[in-house]
Batch of 4 targets.
Target 1
Amino acid sequence: MLYDLSLHMGYSYDVPASGARHVMRLMPLSLPNRQRLVAGSITISPTPDEQSHFVDFFHHPTTSFMLRAPHETLDIRMQARVQVESQPIAADFSPLLADLPEEISGIWSLAPDSPHHFLGDSPRLTQAREIADYARSCAMPELTAMQIAHALCARINKDFTYDPDATTVDTTPLEAFKLKRGVCQDFTHIMILALRSLGIPAGYVSGFLRTIPPPGKERLEGADAMHAWVRIWCGETIGWIELDPTNNIPAGTDHIVVAFGRDYSDVVPVIGVLKSYGGQRAVQAVDVIPLK
């Protein structure tokens, strides 16, 4: 599937900001046998006084830029063309939950995709007893790691209501869990914590979801902004799989990857500091247009 993507992120300040330094992770990745970035560009207005590019620990192309002069608005636009490949349906050769620790202990690598990075607490995710208890209800001893992941994905989708007004970007997973409401970021964080509490490595995926539904199907929730879903390590044979608890589906050709991380803090699209006071407003608009 070939897509044209466009993303607009705009910020306006009550009082002109200055001395602003930001870091962006917005461009879709090229991933072997998964997706290919055909072309892409990012424009920033006002034009930055300084700009540099680097690759972070998780191999994300990252841009840092600085705006010294006072400015009332910041406008960031990304355009890209991406080819997404269909993924074969994998048979479940993942181990039983009781056997997973032995497979993890056999992994000596500390590369960015090592499961060891995705087991413990991370900047935004600290274990919560309520979420661990919730996870155990899906972890029957006769189930494999993959089966447990699918069961948790389906249960979160059933038990939680998609509500963009219920939470903010800073809502904790436990707060969203108690509300039983939220958006893709909340469902993804809750599912990651639930899986980690069982000893199943899990991480955060940031990306895009197509905006035009297949014929005869309802539009997928989360398509008006950047989307998030979960990456799960299911043993040496299977490796990583990706599930979308917001829509209770495996990530497929509708899902376009921008970044992988332990939680949202590793993949924030735009983050930074600036000198100002008063309030600010942000807008985000996404178009994912399938070409064939």
Target 2
Amino acid sequence: MADVTGTTGTLVLAGTPIGDVADAPPRLAAELERADVVAAEDTRRLRRLTQALGVHTSGRVVSYFEGNESARTPELVEALTGGARVLLVTDAGMPSVSDPGYRLVAAAVEQDIRVTAVPGPSAVLTALALSGLPVDRFCFEGFLPRKAGERLSRLRENTDERRTMVFFEAPHRLDDTLAAMAEVFGADRRAAVCRELTKTYEEVKRGPLGELAVWAADGVRGEITVVVQGAPDTGPQELDAEELVRRVRVREEAGERRKEAIAAVAADAGLPKREVFDAVVAAKNAEKAEGTRKQP
């Protein structure tokens, strides 16, 4: 029960099975029974999980999902400052990783409340391990934007990413996403589509992005994780001014300030910042001159 001595409580982030309920960590059952408050992304799924584990939650159960995350966070922080042990669970995997949780963790940290975790299954790590692609360095990109133009823009930000990349995607958008990846990264770039991980119909489809896009065009069901090999390390590249300007603009469109974008492009290309800066200025002046000539 909640601590009545005035000591702050503890926020526990608990990983839940991504498919097979037998993968639930033993500590999850203990925390479900011990918690004063259980915040669940879907209370119905929580009920099914506790039934499968054969445990009973004696604490208060509240919903905590994307739609009420902002409004409910202060309530949970209040419980924590009052000494409660609050357990946060999502539908599958670790809270705050493309799931609700970040706001609550940040708010708890701000109040010097202890935050701990019950490690559990992860679609990101499971897909990486099964992909057959390099896993010594990787980055997680989550879900891509739904709109085609925004999706292409986000992918172009990763054109030169050398780490293996992991994405989540909805099954009805998978074919468009793989086609966009083939366009940006190249049809021959190796990738793996991991479907229904740890479930009955688990499937891992490996191959070049172009072939995977064709395969997905017929329709794919289930929860999807896509793993894409990073860009090859070709060493220092001889880039012309046009390419330098293009890379700076990609970074600017992604939200970087021009100064930082120029510095990053120069570092990647192994060039002095001044050389990239001069290319950007020259391109800008050329655009102005072209615009002047077109005026009546």
Target 3
Amino acid sequence: MQPKTSSLADRPDMLERVAGMADSWPEFVIQDLVGAAHFPRIAAELPEYVLFAEDERGEVVASAYSVPFALGTRGGELPANGWDTVLIWAFSDLRRGVRPDTVSAISISVAPHAQGRGLSAVMLSAMRDNARARGFREVVAPVRPNAKHLEPHTPIEEYVHRVRPDGLPQDPWLRVHARAGATIDSVAPASMTVAASLAHWRRWTGLPFDTEGDIEVPGGLVPVRCEPARGYAVYVEPNVWMRHAL
């Protein structure tokens, strides 16, 4: 049975349930300061860009967040600082009354118990349809390749261009976007940054963080750079910009 999709603009009473849906993001990823400052604002200020799916029991099983922003006035080139930058641009444009010309995906999440049912593709399609209905001609996405964490030392530039015999990307999440019609634009080498004390990293990962150098952490697309003598560690995540013509 196809899940029912709605927006928070149409069903504001669902905000708490959508925001409270369980997800599978690694703990450290949600500590990105730009995301922490701006992500909650999407539901509050741009509820028409927050979509969610309900199963036959009315349980929220997936969500899709996006933001409109002006890309043409910035030269049309997608930013190397990907996810962080597009969030800043979107709310800067909203505050200044700048007319947006593009929609960027921000996140698509599926509740852990509902994964494996194709809901990510359903929500991506719903996001595209929502943008099209609002007059946009393109959706862009700073994609977090969901199997890259299995080989964190592989350069993202190499990883992103791996394809299967049928020509589709080897990475499952890149493949979902490609099947929906997206093409790879570029790599965003510093899409989000998490810099924190060693105590925070130990709490988030359960790892000792007592060795200088690159530390592999569960769920990390690249290693975390650990500096014990200075008391901090930094994670700089690369994403892949993909463009969806509508």
Target 4
Amino acid sequence: MASVVQWIQGTRPRTLPNSIAPVVVGAAAAHHIDEFNVLYTVLALIVSVAFQVGVNYANDYSDGIRGTDDNRVGPFRLTGSGAAEASKVRLAAFISLGVGAVAGVVLVVLSGYWWLLGFGAVCMLGAWFYTGGKRPYGYAGLGEIAVFLFFGPAAVLGTLYVQTGEITGIGIGASIAMGSISAAVLVANNLRDIPTDAVSGKRTLAVVLGDKDTRRLYLALVAVPFLIALGMTVRVPYALLGFLAAPVLLPAVRRVAAGRGGRDLIPVLQFTGIAMLAWAVLVSAGLVLD
């Protein structure tokens, strides 16, 4: 029987900034046009984090029953390690997605934007079929695109729109920044797993590109938020605060650029995630100060 600590590990805490940061910056974009709503932001955060946890448990379950995690060098896996029954991990995924769905329905009812129910349904299906089903799109090199869309435009602009009823240029820029660095987290994860994924038949984008080009992709993606911050200064000079997140990212960049592999790449996920959250908080502070 898996311990409480192992179940927490199964949520993959290092990846949770992917779901927190977009909501933070989306709420700040709403505040920038004087439309910030605390309750809507909290509900959006619950939706985002619950879906993220649901995706992580679903990924654990699906990869585990396929044998993809049998020889993985990455973080602890509940199903692959045998610490928890596959059915219980699947149930945890469904419960997490259910919590997100309930919070999403409440948010839709309060805001009155009923069409967002369809949007939420698409997000739930995307969460499950990333590695679930007979033809998971995460096994076809489409994971990074999905992460960019769900944790970029969907999370940022969704948080902004539900509070304001509109999409702003600042919101679009922030959504591209969040989507890019969120995708970089997955790229780093898949870079580490190229050897085992290739053997198990998991054809990620990293497997398709190969080691060298995957590293180049990671470096390009993590540069995007800083280019966006620079562009934002045309309207929001305080957006330069986002550059204070660069030192947090530097250890990850060094490991990837130096050609490190295996377990040496595990901290890259954490550094990238923290840098993403730091960028979101700092740029959000800039939007509030503007």
